[in-house]
Design goal:
Structural class: alpha/beta
Number of strands: 7
Organism: Noviherbaspirillum saxi
CATH architecture of the largest domain: 3-Layer(aba) Sandwich
InterPro entries: Restrct_endonuc_IV_Mrr
Pfam families: Mrr_cat
Protein name: Restriction endonuclease
Number of helices: 8
GO molecular function: DNA binding; endonuclease activity
């Protein structure tokens, strides 16, 4: 069973926040603990902020590795100008560079099947240019993924409707947008 952090937990929120917020919390907690602890234990006070320090380091690493706003905008422009054949070729090449085996999916609901160290995934990306995605393409992808015993990945430049977002969360469909798509753009 794979453990998943609750989206609204304090640590999940801090991981999505600027890194310095976690460091500030760690410092404040350490100072408060140092003041409130008895004198002989005051030196242990800074350790109270250690979990927040760790979260700050993880957040800083993720933010440092994330593509810039310029790169995201460039990727959106490049991908929105592509035809499906070109876009699917970029997806295939990007997944192969990451060590996946890529084949075209023959069934309905998905476009690519990728095999990697964590198993099989089905990727749906034909509607990547749609300004808004409803729940129907996600239902088709989820059905195909269930049939193939695979993870589901949906790729879009647009937004998901509220129903589609809720469905994707419920069915554990990974939705790749913006910064995720910038990773597919050749450097």
């Amino acid at each position: 069973m794979k453990l998943k952090m609750a989206e609204r937990s304090l640590f999940a929120i801090l991981l999505r926040s600027p890194w310095w917020i976690s460091f500030a919390i760690a410092i404040v907690l350490g100072l408060i603990a140092s003041v409130l602890l008895p004198r002989q234990y005051a030196a242990l006070g800074p350790s109270a902020g250690f979990p927040f320090f760790v979260i700050g380091v993880i957040a800083a690493w993720k933010q440092w590795q994330a593509p810039s706003a310029t790169r995201i905008a460039r990727a959106r422009q490049v991908f929105s100008d592509m035809a499906w054949r070109d876009f699917s070729g970029v997806l295939e090449q990007a997944y192969m560079r990451k060590g996946f085996t890529v084949t075209h999916y023959a069934g309905k609901g998905a476009d690519l099947e990728i095999l990697g160290p964590n198993g099989k995934s089905l990727v749906s990306g034909k509607r990547w240019k749609a300004a808004s995605t409803g729940v129907e393409p996600l239902k088709e992808l989820a059905a195909a993924a269930d049939t193939a015993s695979a993870r589901a990945i949906y790729i879009t430049l647009g937004e998901l409707t509220d129903n589609a977002r809720s469905f994707a969360n419920k069915k554990n469909i990974a939705v790749l947008r913006d910064s995720d798509l910038a990773e597919f753009l050749p450097k």
